[in-house]
Amino acid sequence: MTDFAPQRAALADVVAIPVTPFTENDQLDQESYRTLIRRLLVSGVQALTPNGNTSEFYALTPEERRIEVELTLAEVGAAGSDAQILVGVGQDVPSAVASALEARAAGARMVMVHQPVHPYVSLDGWVDYHRAIAEAVPDLGVVPYLRNPAIDGAAIARLGAACPNVIGVKYAVPDVVRFASVARDAGLDRFVWVAGLAELWAPSYFASGATGFTSGLVNVAPEVSLAMRDALRAGDHPAAMRVWELIRPFEELRAERQSANNVTVVKEALAALGLCRRDIRPPSTVLPPAERERVATMVKGWELP
């Protein structure tokens, strides 16, 4: 069996979701993307998810997603880093399998399976969907991205029993009690549990068994996300909550209007720092001018407590 220890360790950390910068002609801005990845690596980030939701997965073409994976791995290699790459795959089963195989060929060791967007999902169907993908790449670590509260711990346990390479779960249901129950019913130690709702939810999810959390904010201020991680690992809840209070306005702005601003706010912050353009693809939109100024003021005023 494949030893997934390095991959499991990387999941029990800040799992960065890089943004996808675009040029003014709506092309993938490869140079800006590479700069952002280098910045994350220099900061000490150990897990990166190209083609995640903050990467605008569903707005990218298959070719752009392939290029993003290649660029990420190239920067990791150039930096001599041991960071792990968790490639986002999804949509129909053949497309997800093809993307997973491409990721493996490029050198990635893990894939994250985006939540199925099909409107009719049964528990058995959810298991079958992920099992088909995991069995196609038995030497890759597989991490389901779970946003559906109807998926229970028993279903996750069945998937894990059938597929040893399913090593973690990115849990993004905004219900801590549900998370605690699902994690224990599935196997608290069998999987690495990643809090999939970023920094605002990380303290409460860690108290219930998570050991890693995803982040879009880390693109903007890696030191802030890593400070949250360090406080949570140390069991220093007051320190974690001081970071929480610092970034709360930023994360709440991202969550407005059913998370319509999730990626928009991150890109606006990066634009304010001169790191990439604010351009974003439909169905998302850029922020109005008043909110742009608000974001710029936030990020330029951040100081760790």
Description of the molecule:
The protein is α/β, with parallel strands linked by helices and 305 residues long. The protein has a single domain (4-233), classed as Alpha-Beta Barrel (TIM Barrel), CATH 3.20.20.70. Helix content is 50%, strand content 11%. It contains twelve helices and eight strands. It has helices at residues 5-11, 30-43, 62-79, 93-106, 123-136, 153-162, 176-186, 202-207, 222-233, 237-259, 262-272, 289-300; strands at residues 14-16, 47-48, 84-89, 110-113, 141-146, 168-171, 192-195, 212-215. The chain has an eight-stranded parallel β-barrel with strand order 1-2-3-4-5-6-7-8, surrounded by five helices. Strand 1 (14-16), helix 2 (30-43) and strand 2 form a beta-alpha-beta unit. Helix 2 crosses helix 3 (62-79) and helix 6 (153-162) packs parallel to helix 7 (176-186). The N and C termini lie far apart (45 Å). GO terms for molecular function: 4-hydroxy-tetrahydrodipicolinate synthase activity. Belongs to the DapA family. InterPro entries: Aldolase_TIM, DapA-like. Pyruvate binds at residue 54. Pfam families: DHDPS (PF00701).
